[in-house]
Design brief:
Number of strands: 12
Mean pLDDT: 94
Radius of gyration: 18 Å
Oligomer: single chain
Largest sheet: 8 strands, mixed
Number of helices: 12
Order of helices and strands: EHEHEHHEHEHHEHEHHEHEEEEH
Low-confidence stretches: none
Structural class: alpha/beta
Strand order of the largest sheet: 3-2-1-4-5-6-12-9
């Protein structure tokens, strides 16, 4: 089989960085057509810069990186420096990128690529707020039926919220965008906190990253050591959850994950539950299923894949 064509839409973020590294380390499985940056964990000038830093860390400076939307569709940007640090990639010391940022806007690249490639052959991989994807769908409704699949990190059901009591960060930042994406009709697979909170970087797993002994392995270990402090303090967990690499791991080895095809709606009208992913896990409504909502992960298999692939870079 030929590699799966993907566009990674991202707001790096240490866990975004690991997701990108996993994709770039897996050319037999994934062909990265481009990386589109969006404002989220940190503002757009940093996310587009961080995406290029990660590509250069991976030894892939030929990767095409595009800057996209710098603010949510209808709201003021909320960022997460309290988790990811001032740069978004705090932890390791990494040089500024020398590879170019592409001139084209990320939304135009997404639209153009989906129209140019054969229908049903491009997967979108959003790792941050869904602003770029929703803007592309609004501007070019015809692309929805051309998307092979949208595999995204976002939302929660059993784990509820990590930025508010009810909402996960990526969905909360731009709930209007998320609402549009979930209603677009394309096949959607969701990696919610219910899964990602089971993908914990324990000390043993982080030592395995460091033991790779390469700049990539050491940088990943330093990234996770930095941002784990937030989750360990908040949840009392054994380490940091690697949210975004679940997206790329699923594309490489889907049998690591299990879930249900259910209806997922996004709350946009309530101050109390804004950005909540209302997941009909138990099938108690008559709303039509619109997403495969993952509920579990083989964490040992996930970290074995991640460590093996990062060792290639």
């Amino acid at each position: 089989m030929s590699p799966r064509k993907i566009i990674i839409d991202t707001d790096p973020g240490q866990d975004d960085a690991v997701a990108i590294l996993l994709a770039l380390a897996s050319p037999e499985d994934l062909e990265v057509l481009g990386i589109t940056a969006v404002a989220g964990n940190v503002p757009l000038p940093l996310t587009q810069k961080n995406a290029r830093i990660v590509c250069e860390l991976a030894g892939k400076p030929e990767t095409l990186v595009y800057a996209g939307c710098d603010a949510p569709i209808a709201r003021k940007l909320v960022t997460a420096e309290h988790v990811h640090g001032k740069t978004g990639l705090d932890g390791p010391t990494l040089p500024d990128p020398t590879m170019p940022l592409q001139d084209q806007h990320a939304v135009d690249f997404i639209i153009e690529t989906l129209r140019a490639e054969e229908e049903g052959t491009v997967t979108l991989c959003p790792l941050g707020p869904l602003t770029n994807i929703a803007t592309a769908l609004k501007r070019a409704p015809d692309i929805a039926e051309r998307i092979q699949e949208i595999v995204l990190m976002g939302g929660a059901y059993f784990e509820v919220g990590n930025i508010t009591p009810a909402a996960e960060f990526n969905i909360y930042v731009d709930p209007e965008a998320a609402k549009k994406v979930f209603a677009c009709g394309a096949p959607i697979t969701v990696m919610p906190l219910d899964v990602t909170h089971k993908a914990l970087v324990t000390a043993e797993r982080n030592n395995a990253f460091r033991a790779i002994g390469t700049p990539v392995g050491i940088a990943v270990a330093e990234m996770t050591e930095f941002f784990e402090r937030f989750d360990k303090e908040k949840y009392g967990s054994a380490g940091a959850p690697l949210h975004d690499p679940c997206v790329t791991a699923y594309l490489i080895k889907p049998d690591l994950f299990t879930g249900r095809h259910i209806n997922v709606e996004i709350e946009t009208g309530s101050d109390l539950t804004l950005g909540m992913t209302v997941a009909d896990w138990w099938g108690v409504t008559d709303r039509a299923p619109n997403a495969t909502f993952m509920g579990d992960i083989d964490a040992d298999g996930f970290f074995a894949l991640l460590t093996e692939r990062l060792g290639r870079l």
